[in-house]
Amino acid sequence: MYAMSEPGHLEGMDPATGWFDDDVMTMTPEQKAPLSAADRCDRCGAQAYVRVSLAGGELLFCAHHYREHAPKFADVATHIQDETDRLLAEHGAGAAL
Does the model's pTM come out above 0.85? Predict the structure, then answer.
């Protein structure tokens, strides 16, 4: 019996395990893709330059809001992907961080 979200029996698939019988490959925090313009700060919606991985998920921050909240993450973050150095490269040395 298949769940409504599963497709019916597919050629070459084991009907006993359903369509999801392969190992799940997850990326470690160190393997996460670079942040893009589509990634937005969870506080203000500006472009995110920092990804904070926590045991229960992740948060994205602009440089300003990351600096504001960084001390709180020191003890609880499992990984911090900080790309704020891109601000200087993208916006010049005169950019206000």
Answer: no
